[in-house]
Amino acid sequence: MKKVAVFFLAMLIFSNLFSQKITDSAKIYILTCSPGDELYQAFGHTAFWVVDDSIHLSYIYHYGTFNFSDPDFYMNFVRGKLNYMLALEGKRAFLDEYSSDGRDVWKMELNLTFEQKQRLVNFLTWKSQPENRYYLYDFFMDNCATRVRGVLENTYGDSLVYPNLKVDLTYRESIKPYLQAKPWIRFGTNLLLGLPADKKLDYYSAMFLPDFIDTVFSQAKLKTPNGEIDLGLNREYMIKSDYKIGPKPFFNPSNLFWLIFVLILVLTIIEIKAQKNFKGVDFSVLFLMGLMGLIMLFMWLGTDHSPTKWNLNILWAFPTHIFVAFMLFKKKNDLFIKKYFLIFSIVNVILAVTMWFLLPQQYDVAVFPILLILITRFGGYLMKK
Fold first, then answer.
1. Which among 276, 286, 306, 376 has the fewest CB atoms less than 10 Å away?
2. Domain that residue 343 falls in
3. What number is the average pLDDT over the span 187-210?
4. Where does residue 273 rank: exposed (0-12), middle (13-18), buried (19+ CB within 10 A)?
5. Would you give the distance in Å from CA 224 to the centre of its chain?
6. What is the pTM assigned to this prediction?
């Protein structure tokens, strides 16, 4: 969950340096980084820090990085086909970036035997090679945090004992606090996430977030012949900033759409009383809703993003709205349009009534005034002679 410029020559040099054996004095830490202002920083970051002072080694391995120089970067990103990678970076450069962004970084030493330390370093060295470092990113299932979990499971094997933590959240609910000060990003995220985002989490699946990685492994245990011992040791800050997530801005999607609904309602009342037909308003509403529906449909069927499948937002942002918008200007289509509006008036009323307690997908609060806008325009059209 961190953008970094990765230079292949540097990566090769670092990998070759790390191919040498570590010593008994080596220490390995999990680093957890707090969220930042940019979208790719919104959920924090997780990394390994391998340090061996006796042979002057101090490098940070972290997954979830990507290369902007890829000629098909944006297309691959949208379609869920972008190769992410394991990056290797010096401690100073890594910390300088987080310090300049005003973000916290804390470390937790891992309780490892020498053999386990060497196994972890060997694995990361192998994974950092050009032919092994790439993987297809998945926000919920395969990111910088889940990759750290996988490395630790590979290292500790059957000796790793997870704490039985209760997590009474869905994926969608778990990311909500991180987007508190980013209401438009939260709204867009909620529109694009489908039913997979409403699956209940347990402690294991919750480790797609760096904060949960830190929470779980700080309480995890290791089985030994003499009983269980703590996995995490000496948790402390490397960077402590004064940054705090700001309050929710007043100008947010919910407030904006409520304002638009009031304006649409007044306009529709005037329209009905005057027996006029403001087709431009209906065209704008239908076109925008249909366009959103087409985007949702593309993210569902045209990409490899698993969280955007089975998106029930498409029930109100129906893709055919965009085509009906262009039919408004021909008189011969009036009967079809009235039937179409009647059907979707009923659909939107049902959604407005049931969206909070019956549907398996949690809707964003800003969707409710959008439903009222659609109901008002569809109902207004049907009430005109």
1. 276
2. 253-383
3. 95
4. exposed
5. 37
6. 0.85
